[in-house]
Amino acid sequence: MLLAVDAGNSRIKWGVHDAGTWVATGAVPTANASELKDAWSALASKPLRAIVSNVAGSMTGEAIAMAIAAIGAEIIPYAPRSMQAGVQNGYEIPAQLGGDRWAALIAARRRATGSCVVVNAGTTIVVDALTGSGEFLGGMILPGLDLMLEVMAQRIGSLGVPPGHFETFPRRTSDALSSGAIYAATGAIESMARRLAAKTGEVPAILLSGGAAAQLLLHIRGSVEHVEGLVLEGLVIAAKT
């Protein structure tokens, strides 16, 4: 049994993987990382190993390590490499790639038969390009949907504007703000897909994960697959390679 942990800026997602399936999953707000100890201590069967991707800082990492120690599990060292599980890391300094991005690329490589755009839409939206041969070409990071709206509220005085909805041609300020955020995100994803297609000569698939995936799913043109827990999938693969 393996405990996989994906600690992001907003949420910590986790899952216990055994015999090819997830036997338990959960999530807590990153600010409440201390709750993990009780959640994992309540597991009927305790995993003996754990693998962690943490982009939420040292304090969160310490809370996760304490919770893992409380169930007596061993933490498997994890960090992006130059090559792993069929993925070649094209980052200028491979170790500086976020662990969540690396895990998502590893999972995408296992899932995809050709080139693909790997998207993790959370507090930020990461859009990475992966060729059919497993070469990670690079990617972009842009603000997440909520972050875009928060910044606009602070900087342009839209704080009192109620939440809006996506409209193709918005005719209310609230809808214009919400639609603009979605158009910005989907435009970045579709642009990366076009550029990857031009480089590889094949139309890439798009793998979409993260808390905001459902908001983007219906607005992206192309072959899109919504994958829950793509980072956790990649961590399980990484633990074996």
Overview of the molecule:
This protein is an alpha/beta fold. It has two domains: 2-76, ATPase, nucleotide binding domain (Nucleotidyltransferase, domain 5, 2-Layer Sandwich); 83-239, ATPase, nucleotide binding domain (Nucleotidyltransferase, domain 5, 2-Layer Sandwich), CATH 3.30.420. Helix content is 36%, strand content 28%. The chain is built from seven helices and twelve strands. Helix 4 crosses helix 5. The protein is globular and about 55 Å long. The chain starts with a strand and ends with a helix.
Short recap of the structure:
The protein is of the alpha/beta class.
Please describe the structure with a list of short key phrases separated by commas or semicolons.
28% strand; single chain; 12 strands; alpha/beta; Nucleotidyltransferase, domain 5; globular; 241 residues; 7-stranded mixed β-sheet
